[in-house]
Amino acid sequence: MTDSVPGAAPGALPSLPEVLARRSAEQPDELAYVFLRNGEEIAETLTYRQLDVRARQVAARLAALGLGGRSVVLLHPSEPGFVSDLLGCMYAGVVAAPVQVPSRARGLERLRRIADDAGTTVVLTTAEVKRDLEDRFGTLPHLTGLTLHDPASLAAEAERTAPGAVAAWQPRPIGAQEPALLQYTSGSTGTPKGVRVTHANFGGNVDETDRLWPCRGDARVVNWLPLFHDMGMLFGVVLPLWAGIPSYLMTPDAFIRRPARWLEAISRFRGTHAAAPSFAYELCARAVAEGELAPGLDLSSWRVAANGAEPVRWQTLKSFTEALAPAGFRPEAMCPGYGLAENTLKATGSPEDRVPTVLWLSAEELRAGRAVEVPEAGAGTGAVVPSIGCGGVVGDTLLRIVDPETRATRPDGEVGEIWVSGPCVAAGYHGRAEESERTFRARRADRAERRTWLRTGDLGFRHRDELFVTGRIKDVVIRQGRNFYPQDIELSAENADPGLHPNCAAAFSADDGSRERLVLVVEADGRTLRAGGEQLRERIRRAVHDSQRLEADEIVLVRRGSLPRTSSGKVQRRETRRRYLDGEFGAAGAAAPRERVEAGR
Fold first, then answer.
1. Comparing C-alpha atoms, which of 51, 57, 58, 64 is closest to residue 21?
2. 7 pLDDT exceeds 50?
3. Pairing relation of β-strands 416-421 and 398-402?
4. Which pLDDT value is given to residue 9?
């Protein structure tokens, strides 16, 4: 295997393998990734040279098996093998499709659907995951026909298939428009689809991210997000490699079991950049309130606390900032952003040197599609709602607000669909030509332009060149011609009782044959339910009415862990609705509200 990879074309951004090759040559012994056991102790480290050697070994073995130009599934927990396999695939021209390691049969079904959609039977994984899947699910048809390769079996199969080919392998030129990844959408809004992310998309997105939130010489990333998820991969793996800074990685389970570990790791390793959805910051604020943090916490090094992947909530920003201020956390470090897999990840972001923008808006006007500022004094009455700015675009990315029906551009202050254009917009959905054309190559009706746009399906408005996200088109609840955003209804429900946790509710409409009804499915722990489910349901109904001026037709109570979630922890509203209609939470569709309690799965 040679020690170099062909360089990028003049003026083009380098591919990730090209970046790794350069780091390996220029910074061979510097730390690239640090893997934390239980989110606390250093379990393993990788230097740039060690990672480059491992990635090239993987690439040579994949090439020996004739997999160049084809797809494979990556099935790894957050451990070193994910990083080396991902970069090895890119070196070899193999398109990786990262998938969450399944813990239940439903997850195994998703794995098989993704493998079939990607057109592959090859799965790269670890010996432990391979053994566990075969022991637990070996009799199920979903594994039939799949070849699960751990590092040892991949090496043996490559040598058996093409003796000597691994030693003779050389890196190939990497085209900017070649697919680098199939990023399957998390499924929070529908059936998972494979987004074809090119090497140019990766380069464009990480370059813009580094310009927005600069990774200076002393920068360090601390990440708990799952690496197979776009936010975890870009922030935990790609950005650090691109910027040449170390990344400290813990497992999602370590964070969920004890959120304070994330903060303590930032303090211990002097983290400067970390990202998470809004609910993670809320869990951390609760950990502070409950006295779970170790003494001596110092967050003064934290410069960028990126907040995205779900609606950013004002109360969460406030409670987190106030709770962690004694530990040195600065309000300016909180950086709300907006992104999606179809744009590789980041689309907009708030700069690190500015307190997040909050607008206090008339709830009534917002339901009519207009962002009208009013005095904050009305907050808490339901007539005034906060809206958090997600910053603006950087680099060559453009963003417009467009009427989703007429495709005419909306002026600032009017709600419409968010359209994005630029180098980060992915090539389309794998194997879905018509849907790709509709979604990735839209044109505005009121402009004569050659430029095409990505239709995000999200709603928002612009104010002074900053984006404010209000919800998703397909999730909006419409009552008497007014739009109600489900995340606002869910927040009202969550605030109804101190025993309810963040991110514990799903609000949606369901047709009972005569009218559309508003249904809320709410998780609660066993102690809260035993204290009185009927009373809890009434408190939720009253809270929704008082804050939203909206009547909930049915409130379904389930135990914690019952709601379907994406890999980043977001509640899947449409999947919750499907399960409700299928009777998985009990007999759906009755007009009279009533309490239901389902055992957790």
1. 51
2. no
3. antiparallel
4. 47
- Whether 186 and 192 have beta carbons less than 8 Å apart is answered as yes
Cite the beta strand spans of 199-312 per DSSP E: 221-223, 247-249, 273-276, 304-307
What mean pLDDT comes out for the span 398-403? 97
Q: Nearest CA to 301 among 261, 277, 267, 325?
A: 267
What pLDDT is attached to residue 512? 63
Beta-sheet pairing, 247-249 with 221-223:
parallel
Contacting residues for 464 by C-beta, under 8 A, at least 6 apart: 412
Residue with tokens 């910074």: 27
Exposed, middle or buried, 515 (CB in 10 Å: 0-12/13-18/19+)? exposed
List the structure tokens of 540.
Answer: 């939720």
- The overall average pLDDT reported for the chain is 88
Report the helix count and the strand count for the chain, using DSSP H and E: 20, 26
| Residue 114: closest CA among 191, 206, 33 | 191
Q: By C-alpha distance, which of 78, 42, 73 is closest to 227?
A: 78
- 472 near 457, Cβ under 8 Å? yes
Sequence-separated (6 or more) residues with CB below 8 Å from residue 295: none
Counting every residue written for the chain, the total comes to 601
Q: For position 596, what pLDDT does the model report?
A: 34
Q: Tell me, what amino acid is at 318?
A: K
Q: Please give the pLDDT value at position 238.
A: 97
Distance from the Cα of residue 41 to its chain's centroid:
26
Q: What is the Cα–Cα distance from 77 to 89, expressed in whole angstroms? A: 17
The pTM is what?
Answer: 0.83
Tokens of 389: 């700015």
Which residues are CB-contacts of 358 (< 8 A; sequence separation ≥ 6)? 314, 317, 386, 387, 388, 389
Q: Which of 306, 313, 391 is nearest to 348 (CA)?
A: 391
